[in-house]
Design a protein that fits this description.
Largest sheet: none
Number of domains: 1
Mean pLDDT: 91
Strand content: under 5%
Helix content: over 70%
Number of strands: 0
Low-confidence stretches: none
Shape: elongated
């Protein structure tokens, strides 16, 4: 079990699963998909930081901003209907 959750404390698994859930639900046009994206990005930030992968850390910081933007814009479009 330690081999699976060892170095990155399982954060890489959480990030992978929630990234896949984000892609699945956004493809089904579900607004709550952005919440999975946020969880994935935060998990990737911690996993990338542990691994000293600073480009990946920066990427996911930017993705958090884009996910929040998408969530807000999607809500505005829903309220116009």
């Amino acid at each position: 079990m330690e081999e699976i959750f060892g170095t990155y404390y399982g954060l890489d698994w959480v990030a992978m699963i929630t990234s896949l859930l984000f892609i699945y639900y956004i493809g089904n046009k579900k607004r709550f998909a952005f919440l999975f994206g946020l969880v994935a990005a935060v998990a990737w930030i911690f996993a990338n930081s542990i691994a000293h992968l600073w480009a990946g850390t920066l990427l996911n910081c930017i993705l958090i901003i884009l996910y929040i933007r998408g969530y807000i814009k999607w809500g505005r479009e829903d309220s116009k209907k």
